[in-house]
Amino acid sequence: MGTKRTTVDVFWRLLLLLWAITIVFPILWILYESLKTNKEFFADIWALPQSLHWENYTKAWTSYKLGSAFLNTLYYVGASLLLGTFLVTLNAYALTRLQFRGRKLIWSVIMLSLFLPGINALIPQYVLMRELHLTNSLTGLIILDSFGESVFFLLLLGGFLQSLPKELEESAFMDGASLFQVFWRIIVPLSTPGIVTVAIFKFLNLYNNFLQPFIYLSDPKKHTIGVNMYHANQKMQYSTDWVTLFAGVTIAMIPSILIYIVFQKRIAEGATLGTVKG
Amino acid sequence: MAKPETAPRPLPAIRTSWLRKEKTQKRLFVLLAVGPCLFGYLLFTLYPNILSVYYAFLNWDGLTEPQFVGLDNFLRLFQDPFVWRALSHNLLLMLTIPALTVGISLFLAYVLINKGYREAPFYKVLFFFPNVLATVVIALLWAFVYDGSYGMLNGLLKLVGIDNGEFYWLGDSRTALWALLPPAIWGGVGFYVIIFMNAMKAIPPSLYESAILDGASHMTRFVRITVPLIQPIVRVGMLFLVLGSLKGFEMMLILTNGGPSGATDVIGLYMFNLAFGAEMHNYGYASAIGMLLFVILVGAKLLVDRLSPNEQIEY
Q1: Residue B291 contacts A where some CB pair is shorter than 8 Å
Q2: Are both B15 and B139 inside the same structural domain?
Q3: B47, B194, B301 member nearest A272 (Cβ)
Q4: What confidence tier does A276 reach under pLDDT thresholds 50, 70, 90?
Q5: How far apart are CA A162 and CA B175, in angstroms?
Q6: Which domain range does residue B10 map to?
Q7: What ipTM, to 2 d.p.?
Q8: B114, B137, B150, B160: which to substitute to probe chain A, counting the most A Cβ within 10 Å?
Q9: Pick from B241, B303, B306, B243: which is nearest to B106 by CA?
Q10: CB-CB neighbours of A129 under 10 Å
Q11: Which of B54, B140, B276 best tests the A interface by mutation, with the highest count of A CBs <10 A?
Q12: Using only C-alpha atoms, what is the Rg of chain B?
């Protein structure tokens, strides 16, 4: 486009830059503050560190017990991600490509979830989980988060599955393949891009999940990174170890940053589909 | 003569057995594929939702025997000043966050799409970034902004010569609620920039061309062409944000837990603290508030659908 640049453009570009700065600056600030000493930080909150104090990171790792929190998060996020993604793919395949009695009814029951705000169910859900002895357990959380319906994921995968030609399955059935084989050997490989997008969003949802781990995990040994960072911040009222907290927040941010850098395109594509996420 | 007649005979037999085998196989597959998710959904989502209605009629601390108290919880709710205070805070959030988020996102998306700046693709990626961050991280980041002694905001103000004497933005009941707006907007805009940009891309350039020939400014084009054409997606965005500002409470839970002295208490947080908070638990009363919130949310959903102009605009 050969549009000419005027002084108004300078203004627009400055506004864009300003918004960009509100995002980049606080994050950079935390990064470089996390490498100072508390003394340096208290003296001047803008100055760059004189030397890089990486030991803040080891201190954050040990004093906020991020090691065990990291393992807990890995178990909770990893297992829910694998199990949940597998189940939703299987579910989406059956619900979008197979004809069976009750399919329509199941769809309308699932669609009902769009009208449920969820917040009013928090308490009965907790009581239910307690009766099933699934509270204060990472495995319990995995079960809660893996078995369920998500309209967003079903539609996202459904769109992919519907674009696959029907002949693929038919010729496989002719060759005597079972449904399980067709699903595993044909459907899964062909819909990998969709499955990966689902997995990325599942990862973000699980890693960023604060409320459920906060409600359900009472034993500090089972806490996830997010819950531990929450408690670390609460303790700040009594201690004034800022630089260690900065290091801890940075550590908590790293997985999100990595995932975003690697999958940025897919996340943006998935987000445009996100408007169905009630 | 006999041969061609006998030959096809075994075939139907094979086919029916094959069909029957396939049918049971399919049934088994469907059961295994649909069953676990559906069961989980019925158990962990639908059942608690139905149960929450029953809980609202109980007096129950979650441990001892529950008592059925009829409409008592609802009567108490209407006389509870904390409920109304919390709801008034929700009202403020609902009137500000959606409008500001959508407004900023529309503006950013329009400039990024229509101005063809070199840096636009980079900004598109950057602006979305806060959306992938955990609420805890966003909350702590803004806690660092608002801190009185060492916060970024006061530091910036000092740089431009304003010394407010270590003012704690989240610790003062006059500013605490307002201070919660920027984190919510900052964390939400990127998502709407992406979906609005996507919608704006679908607008045919020919529509703009005639407007440009008529000498329409960017402002006119934005108001007259862009916004009306992507209006359905704007409405969906508005709906999400309105519902979000009515039921969301994580940010408050982490940053202020409703304080100072209730200045940032919202209805979801009030309910949460009644059920899971540090003080005495009251599952029944909390559930009644949950029901009220449920009614408000469904009402808001219908209202947003009704109030915003519904006609599809095509040029």
Answers
A1: yes
A2: no
A3: B194
A4: very low
A5: 51
A6: 2-42
A7: 0.90
A8: B137
A9: B241
A10: 22
A11: B140
A12: 28
- Distance CA(B111)–CA(B129), nearest Å, equals 18
Q: List for chain A the helix, strand, coil content (%; round to 5).
A: 75, 0, 25
What is the rounded CA–CA span in Å between residue A209 and residue A81?
13
Collect the ranges in chain B with pLDDT lower than 70.
Answer: 1-20, 308-315
Q: Say whether both B232 and B92 belong to one domain.
A: yes
Q: Helix count (H) and strand count (E) of chain B?
A: 17, 2
Note whether A262 contacts B: Cβ–Cβ < 8 A: no
Q: Which of B38, B111, B130 faces A16 most closely, judged by CB atoms? A: B111
Count Cβ atoms below 10 Å from residue B6 Cβ, excluding itself: 8
What is the sign, positive or negative, of the torsion defined by CA atoms of B10, B12, B13, B15?
positive
pLDDT at B309: 58
Taking only residues 26 to 65 of chain A, the set having a beta carbon closer than 8 angstroms to any beta carbon of chain B reads: 26-27, 29-30, 41-42, 45-46
The domains of chain A, with CATH numbers, are 64-276 (1.10.3720.10)
Q: Is residue B314 part of a domain?
A: no
Nearest CB to B37 within list A24, A148, A242: A148
Pick B62 or A133 by higher pLDDT. A133
Amino acid at B173: S
Q: Which residues of B touch A234 (CB under 8 A)?
A: none
Reduced to 3 states, what is the DSSP secondary structure of residue A49?
coil
> Does residue A235 have a pLDDT over 70?
yes
**A112 at B interface, C-beta within 8 A:** yes
Residue pair A164/A98 in contact (Cβ under 8 Å)? The answer is no
Q: Domains in chain B: how many in total? A: 2
Is there a domain that residue B32 lies in?
yes
Residue in B32, B117, B134 nearest the CB of A256: B134
Counting residues of chain A whose pLDDT is more than 90, the rounded percentage is 46
Task: Provide the CA A274 distance to its chain's centre, in angstroms.
Answer: 14
- Can you tell me whether residue B68 is helix, strand or coil? strand
Q: List phi, psi (to 5°) of A102.
A: 90, 0
The DSSP H or E segment spanning A9 is helix A7-33
**Contact partners, residue B28, CB within 8 Å, separation at least 6:** none
User: Which chain A residue has its CA at the smallest distance from B301's CA?
Assistant: A115
State how far residue A117 is from chain B, nearest Cα, in angstroms.
Answer: 7
| Contact indicator for A271, B195 with CB cutoff of 8 Å | yes
The encoded tokens of residue B60 equal: 């129950």
Same domain, B33 and B159: no
Interchain contact B136–A (C-beta under 8 A): yes
